[in-house]
Amino acid sequence: MNQSAANPVLVVMDPADGEGYALARARLLCEALGSPLELFACEFDQAMEGSHFRVTERLEAARTARVEARHDWLESHAAPLRDAGLEVRTEAIYANPRHEAVARRALETDAAFVVMRTHYHEWLSRATLSAADWQLIRICPAPLLLVKGGPWPQQPRFMAAVDPSHRDDRHARLDHAILDVAERLGGACGAETWVAHCIFSMASLESAASLSMMPEALGSSPEQYAGDLMQQLRTSVLRLLEGRELPAARLRLAEGRPEKELPRLVSELAIDLLVTGGISRSRLEQVFIGGTAERLLDRISCDLLVVKPPGFRCPIE
């Protein structure tokens, strides 16, 4: 998706977001980027569904009434934004599942960003990716901003999580896409932008070394191997930053798994937005959580922005 200022920021409006955090964040993006804003709502009522219901004129009228009421609600939120000078449109539909409706609308509008409020998920939702926001991490064609709540400070802090240790082109392109979005958004919002990379934990190497297996396998001691690896990956990340306005002084390397170390860095550096990547997976891998973005969602205190690699094709496209 080739985005410009003409591409809208699509905010998923939810009455459950009583504080209006998602809309506030979407407004901030629009004002910073000069983009139009679309307020989108998807209505569905399970009570109106099922084999015991026939699609009658009365049922269709009831669905239409729900959508019209939601559209009026969207317009009530759009009016003050228009008065403030923003270009705002609204769209309400009746559809299920919601995550597919949101992804389809992002495709139709060629959205620059999709913004959505997220809440803590119970174990079953996390294990099976049943919640709409978790499903959107997998299929959303636009960068997906999942809002935890609370306003950003006047100068927010962003952090881009990259992984140059992968050798395939898809992951390399994803790293550049993550940095592109973080740099563009950070510049527009006046943010202090950091870059982080988590290195495979040496604890497992030390455990294996205790069995006298690692020196032969590595060709060096575990300590020397760890030091060489750290320097090699630091060089790889610095190479990613060449030609960017992202200073090397704001690079943090952490030893450990991303789902453990990134939340620690978020807390330590008071990060307001973590930018990470989302790689599509097979049908089998979709059943239970496997991606870093999904594992991070309920472990970080800040907003999460998930970026897809160039050439990503939405499964419902």
Identify the notable features of this structure and list them briefly.
317 residues, alpha/beta, 44% helix, single chain, Rossmann fold, 17% strand
TL;DR of this structure?
This protein has helices spanning 21-33, 57-83, 98-109, 123-128, 132-139, 169-189, 203-209, 214-218, 222-241, 258-268, 283-287, 292-297, and strands at residues 9-12, 37-43, 88-94, 113-117, 144-147, 157-161, 192-199, 251-255, 273-277, 303-307.
What this model shows, in words?
- With 317 residues, the chain is α/β, with parallel strands linked by helices.
- It has two domains: 1-151, Rossmann fold; 152-317, 3-Layer(aba) Sandwich (Rossmann fold), CATH 3.40.50.12370.
- The protein contains twelve helices and ten strands.
- The chain has helices spanning 21-33, 57-83, 98-109, 123-128, 132-139, 169-189, 203-209, 214-218, 222-241, 258-268, 283-287, 292-297, and strands at residues 9-12, 37-43, 88-94, 113-117, 144-147, 157-161, 192-199, 251-255, 273-277, 303-307.
- The longest helix is centred in the N-terminal third of the chain and has 27 residues, at 57-83.
> Helicity range of the residues?
40-55%
Task: Write down the overall geometry.
Answer: elongated
Structural class: alpha/beta
Instruction: Tell me the number of structural domains.
Output: 2
User: Could you spell the SSE succession in H and E letters?
Assistant: EHEHEHEHHEEHEHHHEHEHHE
Give the assembly state of these chains: single chain
- Percent in strands: 15-25%
- Do you know the CATH topology of the largest domain? Rossmann fold
The CATH architecture name of the largest domain reads 3-Layer(aba) Sandwich
Biggest sheet strand order reads: 3-2-1-4-5-10-9-6-7-8
The description of the largest β-sheet is:
10 strands, mixed
CATH class of the largest domain: Alpha Beta
Uncertain ranges = 123-130, 208-212, 281-290
The total beta strand count reads 10
Mean pLDDT: 84
Determine the number of helices (DSSP H or I, runs of at least 4 residues). Answer: 12
Question: Using only CA atoms, what is the Rg?
Answer: 22 Å
C-alpha end-to-end distance: 13 Å
